[in-house]
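By convention, each integer encodes one residue's backbone shape. The lines below illustrate.
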Amino acid sequence: MLRLIRNLIVVVGLVLGVAFGFFNYDLVSIDLLWTTTEAPLVVLLVVAFVLGLAIAAIVCIGKITRLRAQLTSTRRRLKDAQTEISNLRSMPIHDA
């Protein structure tokens, strides 16, 4: 059911994106530091969207890498603690 809802949202998003692109195909002037160029508004919006995705992916990759390192460290500490508990359980009990 969730897959159907997700696919429906994707299709609706694509249809809205195509309609938006179709109705906003006007040329706009973009002034960069070294040049001025004209391009369709849709192209500039798609480029901005893709750049935003790329920047977000780079930021997320850094965060995911740190979280994976933390997970590895925590798993190692858990394994050490479990080994220590196992060793303590197997030790004979001495009466004082």
